[in-house]
Design a protein that fits this description.
Elements lengths: L10 E5 L4 H12 L3 E6 L9 E4 L5 H11 L5 E4 L9 H19 L8 E5 L11 H8 L4 H10 L1 H5 L3 H19 L5 E7 L7 H8 L1 H6 L10 H11 L11 E4 L3 H6 L6 H5 L7
Parallel strand pairs: 1-2, 1-4, 2-3, 4-5, 5-6, 6-7
Helix pairs in contact: 1-10, 2-3, 3-5, 3-7, 4-7
Bound molecules: nicotinamide-adenine-dinucleotide (NAD).
């Protein structure tokens, strides 16, 4: 089979490889001939080139995990995440602060042609309403400074953590895209529609199944982890050329349906809580 995506023999890192989208991404990359290095705080049974136990809430664990992989890294897939049923600061650390710290450790191992894809969420769609706040947060320097900022803004801004963490994946991806392309490195993120993974139970519990179901329109079903993996693998592939700084919906048309008034957001808006997925 021709290697049109360009993964054969490439060294890639996948966080969150224990379950859901991260596991599906690691499997797809293995099938494409990549040398896959997995990171998670729960063990993986996949036939990876290496697995390292890393807790994204702990900067020392992140640094040791990336150092254990070492060498040249061609692509990074930031798939790990926590839902809003966890403590807000844990959600902030795993979904953004740890994700950013890990990416900063991996970047010196990347050269021109390197690519990074992270999973954001429609839960972070509020970003465009408060870019100055997001920019203040994403430009904090280092893990500890970001934690300090988040702790100081927990009541007024962070709240349950999930929406704000995902807003910052979106804003930081766009911000970094303009920097990293100067080194020939691309960075993008995805906006998945509701996806049948172990995290879905928490979304149903915290936001309500009707709210989550509303975000599954117009397709009328939840996506699969494999469908989400395809979007991520496409973004980091050789085929994606100069696709950079992009917030890429992998949602069967949800964002287009919202923009053109064809998806009824009233069910989601009736709830005080933001869209879960
Ligand atoms: N499922 C959905 O509908 C949906 C929708 C939008 C976005 N997302 C996002 O997709 C990403 C993947 O989630 P999923 O749905 O596959 O759920 P999942 O629970 O199956 O996967 C999350 C992974 O993150 C890992 N993880 C959690 N905390 C960690 C930590 N402290 N250190 C290291 N690894 C940790 C878990 O072990 C797991 O492997 C998350 O960022 C999530 O927010 C999910």
């Amino acid at each position: 089979m021709s290697d049109i995506l360009g993964y054969n023999g490439k060294r890639v890192i996948v966080t969150g490889c224990f379950s859901g989208m991260g596991e599906a991404t690691a499997k797809l990359l293995l099938s494409l001939g990549a040398e896959v290095h997995g990171l998670d705080y729960k063990p993986s049974t996949l036939p990876l080139a290496s697995f390292t136990n890393v807790d994204l809430r702990d900067p020392g664990s992140i640094e040791a995990g990336v150092a254990a992989i070492g060498g040249k890294v061609d692509a990074l897939f930031n798939c790990a995440g926590l839902p809003q049923s966890f403590p807000a600061m844990d959600v902030m650390k795993v979904n953004f602060i740890g994700l950013r710290h890990l990416t900063e450790q991996v970047l010196p191992l990347m050269g021109p042609g390197g690519a990074i894809a992270s999973i954001a969420s429609t839960g972070g769609l509020g970003w465009s309403r408060r870019i100055p706040t997001n920019m203040e947060f994403v430009t904090t320097k280092g893990f500890a400074a970001a934690v300090e900022w988040a702790e100081a803004h927990q009541e007024d801004t962070i709240k349950e953590g999930y929406s704000f963490s995902k807003e910052n994946v979106i804003v930081w991806t766009q911000y970094m895209g303009a920097h990293l392309i100067k080194q020939g490195i691309r960075i993008n993120c995805t906006l998945p529609s509701p996806t049948q993974t172990p995290m879905m139970a928490a979304f149903h519990e915290t936001s309500g199944k009707d709210v989550v179901d509303a975000a599954a329109e117009p397709m009328g079903r939840y996506s699969t982890p494999e469908e989400q993996a395809s979007g991520l693998v496409l973004l980091n592939s050789a085929l994606a050329g100069i696709v950079n700084g992009v917030v890429f919906p992998v949602d069967g048309g949800f964002m287009g349906g919202v923009a053109t008034g064809q998806v009824d957001l009233s069910k989601m808006m009736r709830r005080a809580a933001p869209a879960a997925a």
